[in-house]
Structures are given as C-alpha cells and as structure tokens.
Amino acid sequence: MNTTAKPPRTIVDADTAAARILDAAETLFYREGSRNVGVDAVVKEAGVNKMSLYRQFSSKDELLRRYLQRRDDRFWGYVDASLELHPHDAAAALRQFFADLAERAGNPAYRGCPFVNIAVEYPEREHFARVFVADNKRQLLQKLTELATRAGARDPAALAKGLALLIEGAYAASQTYAPETELLSALPATADLLIAAAMLS
Amino acid sequence: MNTTAKPPRTIVDADTAAARILDAAETLFYREGSRNVGVDAVVKEAGVNKMSLYRQFSSKDELLRRYLQRRDDRFWGYVDASLELHPHDAAAALRQFFADLAERAGNPAYRGCPFVNIAVEYPEREHFARVFVADNKRQLLQKLTELATRAGARDPAALAKGLALLIEGAYAASQTYAPETELLSALPATADLLIAAAMLS
DNA sequence: AGGTGATGTTACCGGTCGGTAACATCGTCA
DNA sequence: TGACGATGTTACCGACCGGTAACATCACCT
C-alpha cells in the first residue's frame, strides 16, 4: 500500500480562505496569546496554506489588527445585549451588565479580556495594538459615565470609574485567582453596592 | 589606531554574577515580559557572559522561578509597609493599602502586577508560574479576609472579595487605560466606600 | 481548445530562541 | 613554580519565527 499518499489538494477561494484564517486567528490569538502563536499555527488551524494567508493579509500585524477589530465588535455586542434588557432603567442596565460579565468570565474556557491580554503582551504603550486597547477602554468609560448620569448618580464620573475598575478586576481575577476561589461570585453584589451608594444623597 | 580593540576581560565571582543576573532578569522580565526577553538580553543587561548564567541557573525556567520568588517577597513587603502604619486599626490599614497601591500603580514606569502579567503570558493554568501566581493571590485573599474580620465587617469574605476585585482592577487598568484617564484616582475612594458599607448594620 | 489568472506546494531566507561543547585565561594555593 | 578549579569567549546546535520566490496545478472565460 502507498503509505506516502498525499492529501488531496483542496481549493478554497480567497474570501472563504480569509474568513477561515480570521476565525483561526481569533481562536488562537485569544486562547494562546497573539505573540505566542505563529502564522504556521494559524494556517494549520485554518486548514489553508501559508501563502493563502499572505495573499489575503499583508502581515501578521495586519491579522492582529483585524483580530482586534473583531474583538471590539464582539465586546460591544455583549454590552448592547445587556443594556437592551433595560432600555428605560440605566441603573438596572448597569447591574445587568455586571451579572452577564460575571457569567461570561466564570466560563472555564474564558481567557480574560483580550484587550487586557494585549496590554500585557506588548510593553510599549505606543504600539498600535496598545493604542487600540486604550481607545476601547476610553469608549467603555464614556459609556459607563453616560449610564451613571442617566441613572441619576450624584457623581457620575466617580461611579463610572469605580465600575470600570471593577470590570478590569473581573478580567484579571479570572486568570490570576484559582477557579475554586469563586472571586467572581462577588462581582454583581459589589457592583450593586457601588451603584446604590452613588444614588444616596 | 586600533578600532577593533577588545574590551578587557572582567571577572566576577559566581555569587555576584548570580546577583547581577537576577537583578537584570527582574528588571527585564517585569518591564518587557518574561516570554519576550531572551537569555541573551538578560546576560547583556547583567554584563556577564551567557555561560555564567547557565553555570548559576539550570535553565531559564529556573530563573523565572527565582524572579517570581523575588516579586513575591517584594509584594509582601509593600503589604506589610502599609499595614504596619495602622497596627491597631484594620479598617485604616486596608484604606492605607489602597492609597499606597494607587500611588505605586500611578507611576509611569509601572508595568502592572507581575503576577497578572504572568497569568496572561502563560496560557496553561497548570504551568508552574501560573500555580505560583494562584498561590500568591490565594494568600492575598486570605490576608484581606483576616483584615476585614478584624475591621468588624458584617460579611468579611464578601468585603475581601470585593476589595480583591478592586486590586486586580487597579493592576489591569494601569496598563489598559491611558494615563490621562486617571482611573486610579478613583481607587482609594471606591475602596473606602466598600469598607464603610461593609461596617453598617 | 487554449490561455490566463488565482490558488496550492515546496523550499528557502535571515534572524532569534534556549542551551551547550571546547577551549582560553585567570586567581589561588600547595 | 606548577597545577587545578573557576571563569570568560567563541562558535555552534536544532528549533522556531515572519516572510517570500518559484513553480505546479486548477477553474473559468473567451
């Protein structure tokens, strides 16, 4: 028998190749870290040839850019899904977001906030990926401030910053603390407390 | 003139070589990330030869272990320094810790919590460095719980977890948010709020 | 049918990684 | 003085990194 049979050549058009590469990059960059994953691993996971990658993307950095954009879209999808449940009650919307975040971050496959991970992976604050991260966080703080204002907080900026710290804390703690610690179980109640305290005159 | 003059051979004994290597590793691993720094960069920073490293340390992993131990010692030094200022007032001690943390994390050279960074750099929870990190955090939560108890909190475990989340949040936010955001300025007040709320009947 | 452009495959480039062998050179102590 | 052990220096190993050239093969359109 022929033990050296080559696998059949499979041909995929450029668009599907690009999509599969992006899917593979999203999976691997998030799970293993963008700097720990080589392009060879990406194309293997995507089931395409390395040249297919470099014909669709100019470089690994370009792939990283697209990865960040995907993560950004996904993140705001999470936010919108939580907030839409309470369109006329900003305080409830905030509480909902923390409940949903605690749920997501408690998943065993959760590997933390992709943006926090990027910030750790790239030491230079001027790196384009770090700039992207800072921009995402800036928009998040803005959204939190807007919600805190609508909720009627005495000092909306202060409440928003406190909640932003809690959010980052949930991200980091999901990776630093052992799962048995169940630190995230305290997230919703702590957020509720901050929100409630911000309403009192 | 002789433009190819070799630098003079400098000889240092094993102990000072080991110390300089550890210092260099601590600086570089923290600033750039342990996986982003090669042993060549470490020996260059230390001003010693690569063989001097491998005669003192069995591997880069061994160096990483020593690095983690150093950071652990340093961390508990910070904790003790804050707590010692209020030996008979646990609530004040907690508040002091957050004030000092906000100060440290606001330093421009601050590169976040070394343990958070390790957790991001190494994807596998079973990796020895991740286990070390989880152990440090477990001890921190224990210390916080003990202080919350001494402070007279109604639910010490809940307060400790909330504060632990805030701490991790300060670490992560120091790297994700742009400095202009001054998110850390909200840290002490938020911690104070949580502590005060935990005391009320 | 023939040609043309997109895709797949292989092999390779220079650079960096962690780690080591071999040898030169030094200080120290008998 | 001579020998021995510790240190410094150089060169190298195989593996992986991001990226590319050259060529084989296919689909599709005229």
Protein described:
The structure is a homodimer of 201-residue chains. With 201 residues, chain A is mostly helical. Chain A has nine helices and no strands. Chain A has two domains: 10-57, Arc Repressor Mutant, subunit A; 59-199, Tetracycline Repressor, domain 2 (Orthogonal Bundle), CATH 1.10.357.10. Chains A and B meet through α6, α7, α8 and α9 of A and α6, α7, α8 and α9 of B. The structure holds a DNA duplex (30 and 30 nucleotides). Chains A, B: Keywords: DNA-binding, Transcription, Transcription regulation. Chains A, B: Residues 38-57 bind DNA. Chains A, B: Pfam families: TetR_C_13 (PF16925), TetR_N (PF00440).
- What's the helix count of chain A? 9
Find the count of extended strands of chain A (DSSP E, 2+ residues). Answer: 0
How can the largest sheet of chain A be summarized?
none
In CATH, the topology of the largest domain in chain A is named Tetracycline Repressor, domain 2
- What would you say the CATH architecture of the largest domain in chain A is? Orthogonal Bundle
Proportion of residues in β-strands of chain A = under 5%
Q: From the structure provided, what is the oligomeric state, counting identical versus distinct chains?
A: homodimer
Low-confidence residue ranges of chain A: 1-6
Largest interface: A-B, 47 and 47 residues
What portion of residues of chain A is helical? over 70%
Q: In sequence order, what are the helices and strands of chain A, one letter per element?
A: HHHHHHHHH
* Structural Rg of chain A: 21 Å
Euclidean distance between termini CA atoms of chain A: 84 Å
| CATH class label of the largest domain in chain A | Mainly Alpha
The structural domain count of chain A equals 2
DNA-binding region (chains A, B): 38-57
Keywords (chains A, B): DNA-binding, Transcription, Transcription regulation
Domain HTH tetR-type (chains A, B): 15-75
Protein name (chains A, B): TetR/AcrR family transcriptional regulator
